[in-house]
Fold this protein.
Amino acid sequence: DAGVIQSPRHEVTEMGQEVTLRCKPISGHDYLFWYRQTMMRGLELLIYFNNNVPIDDSGMPEDRFSAKMPNASFSTLKIQPSEPRDSAVYFCASSLGTSYHEQFFGPGTRLTVL
Amino acid sequence: SQQGEEDPQALSIQEGENATMNCSYKTSINNLQWYRQNSGRGLVHLILIRSNEREKHSGRLRVTLDTSKKSSSLLITASRAADTASYFCATGYSTLTFGKGTMLLVSP
């Protein structure tokens, strides 16, 4: 397996634009997680899915953020409209379960909002 | 607030030396995990220790867990330049909460 795949790897956009981040989890993993990493706040869980269903989105900072998982092999994280404070590295991770299971992380998308 | 907090924030050592990083957490856990992150990369799982375990080994890694003190330590023995990375502890039941990490620099 190629591991968790994320695209794009880098995204530079202007304030107010829509941004869509994409993730392909490892085949067979039932859980998918979206994280945001910044120097100030560290690694924060935004939302996670189980069998394509969103379970907990309490980490999503604002209504400008939305996430979908239309099928077991694809998820998107959308920011509309984007703001400079959204600049961060966004990671997708997948796992076989929650407790007692390791998470496999993608390489991340570095987002810069000007 | 972060569940796990690593100490020290940064650690600089020479190749061949041992590196010890600590993690403290606030609430009860059923397992604790350590991850490594190389610059510009995603996190990579290193080791998982369950709450009923006190020590676990994996290659040059040794992890201890003291649930009475709500703390864990990660020891890397005979460090190499390739061990240069940030190291995070993560705790939780259904989801993981990560600390801010320890940046380890191993100089040749």
Summary: Chain A touches chain B at residues 4, 33, 42-43, 45, 48, 56, 91, 93, 98-100, 102-108 (CB under 8 Å). The longest strand of chain A covers residues 42-50.
